[in-house]
Amino acid sequence: MTESILPSTDRNDRPSVGERRAFFGAVGSLLGASVLAGCAEGSGDAERESATSAAVIGSTPVKWVDTVDVDLRSTPGCVQSEVVVARGFAAINDGGGGVFSWDATSASGDDGGTVIVATPMCGSPAGRWIRLYSGPLDVRWFGARAGSASFAAQNDVAIQRAIAVATPVGGVDGGRIFFPQGQWFIATTISIVKDDSVILCGPGGAGIWGASGAYDHHSAKLLWCGGAAVMVDFASTMRCGIVGLMLDGGGTATGGIRLRTTDAPAKGNFFEDIVVSNLAATSIGVHIGTDPASSVNPDVAFNKFERFWILGGAIGVLQEGNQTVHTVFEDGVVIWMTRYGMQFLGGDINVSRCFFSADASAAAEVYVAVRAQYARFVGNSHETVCRTSYQFEPTTATLLRPMATLFLGVRVLYQRSTGSPRRIVDFQQDGHLTLVGCTFDGAVVSNAPEVYLAPPLMGYADTGLVQEIGSRYLNGAHAVVAPVAGAYQAFFSNGSPATPPFTPVLAEHFSTGTCHKLHNGSLQLQDNNNAQSLLLGTKFSTYLGQLSISSTEARAGNLLLSVENNGGSRFTVNFAGGPGFYGVTSPPATRPTVTGSRGGNTALADLLTKLAAFGLIIDGTTA
User: Fold this and answer.
1) Is the pTM of this model over 0.85?
2) How far is CA 356 from CA 69, 335, 411, 435, 501, in A?
């Protein structure tokens, strides 16, 4: 239905101020206040906006139509800058209406939302209805409707139409696509390919919990009702992303977000204030990295995930590809995964201030493969009920990871009481590992989880260094430094001993210059049947403690302790005999007894008495 408002030629008959306000109030109810106010970047056509104002004050005719999809398409424009107000897209007040101005010279294609071709046209194939707007594109302008799975097919079409309009010519400016509050059902993958600055956005608040513990749905939600597929696919995009949206997999989607490359890089994408939940049991919440099917390996770089929730499925985050670098995960929640919270198969790793709690059946909350690069874990918090909080794929002779790994301020509350081994950190890789200010809590003493540190030094002589500074082990948690062919350093860790005591177990040999400092703790050295002497320069310092070197198995000819200086032996203790000095290799096995007469020699008597006092001899002499 079309209504005309024809202006009068009499100035006294023009609309009053009150009438003009009523008109804009009606238009505002059709467009939404955010559009009229320009809630995001971008601007409309100033000429057409002035034409709208001019129409209201009487210089240009204004028409009203019920719908864009039917009525506007059948309403030809004949006058340049003629204005039409549509009450809705497919139905009145469905949110898809708006203000359109006639451009008599335009021959642009009908994009289903911002450019509408009217048929029949007034005597010329040229001319289009152009939507007047500022700010983001609204999916309702292209026919999307919320609230029912029956709208899924038209939503799939509408969203892709909006993406096509948001895609900038030349890849410079891009655009935001706005989803108002509500449930927006989709059944096919939203595909964004080689675009620049296309952002899917909602009103925000995607991660808000209600008082009852269920989600408080103040945000917009994309709700999947299709088959086994990924919900949103970003391929070789630049500066694209999702902000303020929930992605609900409907129990069947196999992925939430896929960020990949084709034959071009994927850089600068960002995902903020998002929730990915209710995916299929075998799903991957976020999958980032080079497409394995691609014949090239372009960069996936400088991408960011911030304020995100990933709930349930098999793997929360899967990162792969050697060229996946400088991706940042911050302020996230990753819970209820059945395999891994985050799995890093390649690229460097930056995870900060994230909370993890995987399902009890999961292998680990964080998994780092040997193909991964530098790793940094800062301020993360874990409530672990699965086997391992951080699992590092073991190094082999052919698969090495001589990269540095940093734990800074990581807190783990380990709550698993069954199965073996129970490990907070399982580190068996080649690179340096540094732990600073971490807290490892076994919850109860009987859990006794390990921080298992065992760099095997498979081929890099300058790696395999483990350093701890200010770590705290509580309620049965303890460090185990198993056969290490590198060095271990602990500075001011564990201010008070836990029960069982904080007892790092070190084996093999230590590198030159290794320094160990313990406060109110103990350091145990154990050869594990593969004894090697301590190298030069190693220093052990204790404060009100003791240094004990022992072995559970004595072997003839093997040294228990050797003190050397520049290669020359000064003092040795071996299993076959007692202590030896200055290179003596076969000292007596037992303390010797000195016999015979001292012949009244006072000095000799004094010497023998003092050697006996040191326990070096038994004085069996006579006067």
Assistant:
1) no
2) 48, 6, 10, 19, 27
Listed in order, strand segments (DSSP E) in 393-538 are 405-408, 411-414, 423-427, 433-436, 439-441, 450-453, 465-469, 472-474, 478-481, 487-491, 505-506, 515-519, 524-525
Amino acid at 325: V
Instruction: Give the H or E element holding residue 389.
Output: strand 388-392
Model pLDDT for residues 413-425, shown as the tens digit of each residue:
999 999 888 999 9
- DSSP symbol at 315: E
> Residue 453 in contact with residue 506, Cβ under 8 Å?
no
> 361: number of CA atoms within 13 Å, CB side?
9
Residue 82 identity: E
CB 171 within 8 A of CB 196: yes
β-sheet bridge partners, residue 320: 289
Give the tokens for residue 609. Answer: 């008495």
Task: With beta carbons less than 8 A apart as the criterion, state whether 551 and 524 touch.
Answer: no
pLDDT score of 353 more than 50: yes
Task: Tell how strand 324-325 and strand 347-352 pair up.
Answer: unpaired
Question: What whole-number distance in Å separates Cα of residue 270 and Cα of residue 326?
Answer: 12
**Token pair listed for 132:** 């007047």
- Measured CA to CA, the distance from residue 417 to residue 291 in angstroms comes to 40
End-to-end CA distance of the chain: 134
**What is the pLDDT averaged over residues 103-130?**
86
Question: In one letter, which amino acid is 617?
Answer: I
598 contacts 605 by C-beta, under 8 angstroms = yes
Confidence of residue 263 (pLDDT cuts 50, 70, 90): confident
Residue 576: DSSP 8-state: S
Phi-psi region of 194 (alpha: psi -120 to 50; beta: other; left: phi over 0): left
Token pair in block for residue 253: 């989607």
Q: For residues 34 and 31, what is the distance between their CA atoms, to the nearest angstrom?
A: 8
What distance in Å separates the CA atoms of residue 431 and residue 405, rounded to the nearest whole number?
Answer: 7
Q: Which domains does the chain have, with CATH numbers?
A: 2-132 (no CATH), 136-359 (2.160.20.10), 591-622 (no CATH)
Largest distance between two CA atoms of the chain: 147
- For 50, 214, 496, the CA distances from 518, given in Å and listed in that order, are 77, 47, 10
Token pair belonging to 549: 């070197």
Q: How large is the angle between the packed helices 46-57 and 17-31, nearest 10 degrees?
A: 140
d(CA 52, CA 41): 21
Helix (H, G, I), strand (E, B) or coil at 231: strand
Q: How far apart are CA 278 and CA 457, in angstroms?
A: 43
Distance CA 155, CA 221 (A): 13
Residues 6+ apart with CB under 8 A from 244: 201, 202, 203, 204, 205, 206, 219, 220, 272, 273, 274
